[in-house]
Amino acid sequence: MDPRDWRGVGGEWPDNLGDAAERVRQQFGSFHPRRLLPGLAIFLVLVILWSSWFTVQPEETGVVQRFGAVVRTVGPGLHFKLPYGLETATLVPTARVLKEEFGFRTAASVPGRRTQYADSPAFKDESLMLTGDLNVIDVQWIVQYRIEDPVRYLFRVRNPRQTIRDVAEAVMRRIVGNRLGSDVLTVGRVAVSTEVKEEMQKILGDYDTGVRLVTVELQDVTPPDLVKPAFNEVNEARQDREKSINQAQEQANKEIPRARGEAARTITEAEGYAVERVNRANGEATRFRAILLEYQRAPEVTRRRLYLEALSTILPGAKALYVVDGDQKALVPWLQVESGGKAVAGGKQP
C-alpha cells in the first residue's frame, strides 16, 4: 500500500505524528552528554562523602577493615574511612553488658512497669536437665558478659554469640548432672552458678573469644509441671521439719542456759555450805581442844562449868521443871513462888 493512501483513510493523523517526531528531534538534537558531567560529579562526591565517615557511639568500639584485613580500632566519635567498600567499619558494643537467656525470653522491659517474659515450649529444650539422682528439673538462668577484645570477638570464632550459648548450656548440663536434684533446687544454687561461671570462662578463654563473663545467675529452678504438686508437698514437709527443728533449738537455747545457771547456783551454794561446815568443824575442834586443855588443868571445875552450860541450854525449853533428890521416895509439889509461874514439883524442901 502506498503511504500516501493513509491520508485518505486516517485524515490528518499521519501528518500530526510526523510533526510530533520532528519536534522531538529538534528539542533533543542539540543535547550533549557533557552537560550531565557536573551533576554526575556532584552525585559522586556526595556518595564518596556519605561512604567515607561513620559514627561510633559511647558504648561501642569500631573495627575498621581494608579489603577484609583489620587495620585499626577506633573509639567513640566521628571517624573517616576509604569509600566504596575499600574500608568497612563494624561497631562492637564493648562497654555494654550483654545478656543471654536460657529457658525464657524477655518480651518487654519498660521502666516503671513489670517485666514481661515470653513463654514457649521450645524454651523447655534449653532448661530441662537431668540431675545426678536421675531426676528432671527445669533450670532457667542468664549469662551476662562483656566484650573485652572486639577483634578476637569478631574473627576468632565464626559465631561468637551462638558459641557462648552452646558453651553455657553444655557446662550447665554437666554440672547439674553431677549434683543431686534437691541440692540444685535448694541450697546448691549459688555453688552451681559459681562453678558454671569459672568453667565457662576457662573454655571461652581457650577459644580466644575476647569475652569476659560478668555473672551467671540461676533465675528459677523448679521441677517439671507434672510433678510440681508432689514436690510442693515434699517442700512443705521439709519446711515444717525445719520449723520444728528451729523451735526446738530456740527452746533449747532458752532452757540450757537456765539449767546451767541453776546448776552453777547449786554448786556455789554447795561449795559455800561445805566451806561453812568445814569452818564450823574447825572452830568446834579448836574449841574442844581449848576445853580439853582447861579440863586437863582443872577437871572438876571444867566438868561443873560444862554441866551448868548444858543446863542453861536445856532448861529454857522445858515445859515443867522437877528437882529430884535421890534419897526421897516420893515427889513433893513445889509451891509457886512467882505469880503466873508454872507449878514445880520437888523432892526435898529447903
Q: Key features?
A:
alpha+beta, 350 residues, single chain, disordered C terminus, disordered N terminus, four-stranded antiparallel sheet, 10 helices, 3 domains, Tetrahydropterin Synthase, Chain A, 14 strands, three-stranded antiparallel sheet
The percentage helix is 40-55%
Q: What would you report as the Rg, rounded to the nearest angstrom?
A: 57 Å
User: Which residue ranges are poorly predicted, with pLDDT under 50 across at least 5 consecutive positions?
Assistant: 1-14, 337-350
Structural class of the helix and strand makeup? alpha+beta
Distance between the termini: 204 Å
Number of strands: 14
What's the helix-strand series?
A: HHHEEEEEEEEHEEHHHHEHHEEE
Taken as a percent bin, the fraction of beta residues is: 15-25%
Number of helices, counting only DSSP H or I runs of 4 residues or more: 10
- CATH homologous superfamily placement of the largest domain: Band 7 domain
CATH architecture identity of the largest domain: 2-Layer Sandwich
**Gross morphology:** rod-shaped
Count of the domains:
3
- Sheet with the most strands, sense and barrel status: 4 strands, antiparallel
* Average pLDDT over all residues: 81
The CATH class label of the largest domain is Alpha Beta
